Amino acid sequence: MKDANIKEAVKEKYGQAALRVNSGGSACCGAAPASGSGCDPITSNLYDASQSDQIPPEALLASLGCGNPTALAELNPGDIVLDLGSGGGIDVLLSAKRVTPTGKAYGLDMTDKMLALANENKRQAGTDNVEFLKGEIEHIPLPENSVDVIISNCVINLSADKDRVLREAFRVLKPGGRLAVSDVVTRGDMLPEIRESVLLWVGCIAGALEENAYRSKLESAGFEQVEIEPTRIYQLKDAREFLAGEGVDVEAVASQVDGKFISAFIRAVKPSSSKDVACCGPACCN
Q1: In this structure, are residues 117 and 150 in contact, taking their beta carbons and an 8 Å threshold?
Q2: What digits encode the pLDDT tens for the residues 143-186?
Q3: 6 with 207: CB under 8 angstroms?
Q4: What long-range pairs does 246-254 form, CB within 8 A, spacing at least 24?
Q5: Across 40-54, 125-139, 241-255, which has the greatest mean pLDDT?
Q6: Cα–Cα separations (whole angstroms), residue 111 to 7, 42, 137
Q7: How far apart are CA 185 and CA 11, in angstroms?
Q8: More exposed terminus of the chain, fewer Cβ within 10 Å: N or C?
Q9: Which phi and psi angles does 104 have, rounded to 5°?
Q10: pLDDT given at position 62
Q11: Cα 108 vs. chain centroid, distance in angstroms?
């Protein structure tokens, strides 16, 4: 699929998700909800009651994430936080509370309907230190060295140009700034047709990276201290219903599916400015 087609597919999917929330429904990431759950095992049960009670219910219903970066990211009072692909704003609103009014939380999204929903959720939450920006995660509309922490929830995998996304994240982070994102990754080799079928379910749009490739792209962008921590490992039973509906002989491909699709928390750090300064004399590198 061409890059432009991927982008339009993502816009359409997320725009429809916003409309479902506005009409009283929810936005599930997977194509087929798990039996009896009302949603799927990727997007369900990501936020506990202490968090969901802090935000408007529409923000929770609009979540299309695969993890909970706000629970795992280190956020301090006064930090400036940017959420890539902020959707209905749940992670932005939760982050704004943690950085306190002395900090700020930005949300970046390219979908008009999601931005409208997010701004309504901001109004209902009565949160002043939040700003939602329209734009693409490949072209972040913020200056370089302006953000302390970047979070994202199952969005980078949707981009057709992940290298550009990670370079942009590196650019806008301050020296010593932190990337702390949830995303879908794959583990090990598998048949291409199986990978594509399952990623349509796990990642909403097929595009998740193999975990070592993700690490390599982060390091190529300039990041250090890269860590990939699994938060959910999807088993065969999680994908069985979806794959059967796609005409796949599930049992025949069990080894290609079981344990190979993962929601992960991915951490990385932009080097501090002291590491970026060239050595100027015989003693300065000692």
Answers
A1: no
A2: 999 999 999 988 898 888 999 999 999 999 999 999 999 998 88
A3: yes
A4: 246/197, 246/200, 248/194, 248/197, 253/191, 253/194
A5: 125-139
A6: 10, 22, 12
A7: 22
A8: C
A9: -150, 150
A10: 47
A11: 12
